[in-house]
Amino acid sequence: MQDWVNIAQIATAIITLIGVATSVWLSIKALREVQHDRKLNHKPFLLFDFGAEQIPIEFVKCGKAIPGINPKYVQMAFAHLPDDIESIRVKHYEKDDKTILIDYGSLRNHGNGPALGVEVVFNPQKVWIGSEKFELNQNKLKEPQYERGLNKLPTYPSHIAKDSTGQLHRIPTFIEKDFEKKISRVDGILEIEYKDIFMNEYVTKQEFRIFTDYSADEKNITFTFSDIEN
Domain map of the chain by residue range? Predict the structure, then answer.
């Protein structure tokens, strides 16, 4: 009889353990579903509006400097460039004793939540010098003007709310430091990097094309944003 009592106690313990494990599993499953739903309810999705936009530019004698980039790193990276070169920058104007930069690009948040810490990386793939086209290989992409870090641009604002837009004020370094003004076109892929309110990271990839026109009465660059890359 004692054996049956022991067996019954063991069986009861096993059943209880199974019940507890099942309860924990269901709780975890429910929590994950809630977290997934919350994530979907707050997931941002950024994309530049399709189309072309022409922006006026100016030639600025600023040497090797690049706005927002560590001066010491820039001096080291572009040590081979003359100190008195002209950079190609978005045109600015003065208003109420303030310098106002013209912005470009309409980076729209189509998602359900805010996008935080937004940055845009211009990855060039093809470059035209005049009418000649060149494919950029891995060695070429290591050159400072094409380097990823120097072509990662902040947006304004850096946090983009649902149904809102952000813009860019800087142009990519591979255009800005084309001091001989030889580049006529660049094709490539944008990487739009951002986070949601839970600090999950996202990247949207989109095609871009840049056309330069330095001989026009008003010097300009045309940016086009088009297809989404998978």
Answer: 1-41, 46-229
